[in-house]
Amino acid sequence: MEKAMRNFFLFLSKNKYLTRSAKKYGLRFGAARFVAGETIEQAAAIIKELNGKGLKVTIDYLGEFVDNQKEARRMVDNCIEAIKIIGREKLDSQLSLKLTSMGMDISDDYVMSTMREIMDAANKNKVFVTIDMEDYVRCEKTLQIFKQLRREYDNIGTVIQAYLFRTSKDMEELDAYAPNLRLVKGAYKESSEVAFPNKVDVDDNYKKIIQTHLLHGHYTAVATHDDAIIEFTKQFVKEHNIPNDQFEFQMLYGIRSERQLELAQEGYTMRVYVPYGTDWYGYFMRRLAERPANVSFILKGIFKK
Ligand SMILES: Cc1cc2nc3c(=O)[nH]c(=O)nc-3n(C[C@H](O)[C@H](O)[C@H](O)COP(=O)(O)OP(=O)(O)OC[C@H]3O[C@@H](n4cnc5c(N)ncnc54)[C@H](O)[C@@H]3O)c2cc1C
């Protein structure tokens, strides 16, 4: 049943018609629990609040299915505006983005030019940028673009998904770049030809890549809400004397907020991924796919009104 719900919401997340419709109607159906508003001003207020509680942030201007330069331009401009505001207001925030929003599906040259524009602004404002990882068909190209940009910039990282079979090999190849990586389980619907279908195998692989990346001395962001993985990481760093400034925990805005605070109070770096913008639909559907409890929360919200 849980698997069927997950597939249903992941299917809905890819619906272009619903994506477009949702943009017109503003944050609905409880999406505000997971999305920090539609404007950078609203998001900046949330970042300040989180920073005030000892939490660091990575901000994400939401956008999906960008297939024309006009839309990609709008995305790039919004990212640059966010970078400038982070710099100007001295917010403790990084930036996360998706290459499809920056024009990856338009052309290679185009996405490289938009990314260099963003990276130049980020460099100037001392903002770190993480390239989110999207679906499997875009994984290879995302890594190639990351490697090219990493040769040119220090302030860039990307994401590795534990559910993919290719992940260990990707990490070996990335090692030479001393990459700052966010490690995640993986959020998209992938075929069993490319990804572990069973959670237990994903979790095992997740632990494996956390160990490898930490032992290689690279900065590691463990992005999960899973206590078992968090406890595993805490134990592992203790046993191997890995300093607290070589890793951090990350969670999504609106999910396990209490746990985020606890980890910060225990002295760990805790970063909250804060999405904002009008294009909230796909992101919201993926959150519903992850956890049926989120769905009942949303339904309660709808029927209360
Ligand atoms: C900061 C961040 C960035 C991410 N970036 C990417 C990306 O670039 N690409 C990508 O594919 N995916 C990304 N993800 C999503 C990730 O791949 C997973 O889909 C998502 O984090 C859910 O997996 P999980 O590790 O939290 O554990 P799950 O296996 O989903 O959950 C494990 C356990 O965590 C606890 N838990 C989970 N949710 C809740 C909740 N709402 N309340 C209470 N307990 C809960 C429960 O005990 C649950 O059994 C990102 C996630 C985070 C946190």
TrEMBL record:
Pfam families, alphabetized: Pro_dh
Top-level taxon: Bacteria
Keywords recorded for this protein, A-Z: FAD, Flavoprotein, Nucleotide-binding, Oxidoreductase, Proline metabolism
Residues in coiled coil: none
Top EC class for this record: oxidoreductase
Domain Proline dehydrogenase residues, every copy: 47-298
UniProt keyword annotation of Zinc present: no
InterPro entries: FAD-linked_oxidoreductase-like (IPR029041), PRODH_bac_arc (IPR008219), Proline_DH_dom (IPR002872), Proline_oxidase (IPR015659)
Cofactors named for this entry: FAD
This protein's pathway: Amino-acid degradation; L-proline degradation into L-glutamate; L-glutamate from L-proline: step 1/2
Entry EC number(s): 1.5.5.2
Gene3D superfamilies (UniProt xref): 3.20.20.220
Reactions catalysed: L-proline + a quinone = (S)-1-pyrroline-5-carboxylate + a quinol + H(+)
Protein name listed in UniProt: proline dehydrogenase
Annotated organism of origin: Bacillus norwichensis
